[in-house]
Amino acid sequence: MKFETPKFNPIPDKTKENIEKNRMFKTIEKSLVLTPSKKLDLATFLLYDKKKIAYLGDHKIIEPEDDENTWRKKFNEEIEELKKVLKGSGLFYEMAKNLKKENEILGFNMVVARNKEDLEKFLEVEKEDNDREMGLLLGYPETAIEGYENRDFLIVEDLPKNEQEKIEKEGVLKFSGFSPSKKYWREELKEVRKIQSLIKEKSSSIYKQIIESDL
Fold it and tell me: Structural domain tally of the chain?
C-alpha cells in the first residue's frame, strides 16, 4: 500500500493577522489595568487603517500628599499590560519616554506602529513638536488639525440645543481623540462615527467600557 505525504496548506498571512487581532482584542477586553482611553486608542489603531500610530501613556502631577511609589507601581503595571497585549503581535513599539518624574510630573509614553518606518517617523516629528505630522499619523482629519493649529475648534455648548443633545446621546465625541474644527465638525464626526461603529461591531465589551467612561 502506498501512503501519500499529507499536504498542509500554509495559513494565509491575512488569516494569521485576524487571529492575532482577535487575541489582542480579547486581552484588551479582559484587562483590569488598561484605562478606557488606552483601550480606545488600541482598538481604533487595530481597526482603522488611517491611524498609523497608537500613542499610549499616563501622567500624574505628584502632590506632597501623594505616595509616589503607589503611582509608580500603577504605571509599571500599565506598561507590563501593554507589553502583554503587544507580545507576538508583529507590531512595532518603543518607549518614547520611560517612566520617570520631571518637574513633579510622573509619567511614560509608548508608541505603537504597524511598521518600523511609521514608528521612526513619529518619534522624529514628536521630537520636533510637529503637531501636524503627529496628528496625521494618529489618524486625525486634516481639517481638525488645521482647526487645532488655528485655535478654531468646535465648542459643543455653542451649537443649537438639538445638535448638542444628538452628539451627547450617541456619545460620538468619546471616540474622537481630537477636537473637531468649528467649520468642518460635521464631516469630521462622520469619520469618528465609522470608528465608533467598527469598535461596537468588533467588541461590545470595549464599546460599553468607553461609552460608560468619563472620556
Answer: 2
Write the CB contacts of 164 (distance below 8 Å, at least 6 apart in sequence): 156, 157
Please give the angle made by the CA atoms of 161, 135 and 76, to the nearest 5 degrees.
Answer: 100
Distance CA 54, CA 175 (A): 14
At 55 the three-state DSSP class reads strand
Phi, psi for 113 (deg, rounded to 5): -140, 165
Provide the 10 A C-beta neighbour count for residue 155: 9
What residue type is 69 in one-letter code?
N
Whether 4 is covered by a domain: the verdict is no
CA-derived radius of gyration, the chain: 20
Rounded to an integer, what distance in angstroms lies between the CA atom of residue 83 and that of residue 61? 24
Residue 155 sits in which domain range? Answer: 139-215
Q: What is the pLDDT of residue 18?
A: 84
Per-residue pLDDT, averaged over 115-135, amounts to 96
**Residues 151, 173 within the same domain:** yes
Residue closest to 149 by CA, chosen among 162, 140, 158: 140
* Residue positions counted in the chain: 215
- Which of these ranges, 83-92, 112-121, 139-148, has the smallest mean pLDDT? 83-92
* Whole-prediction pTM: 0.88
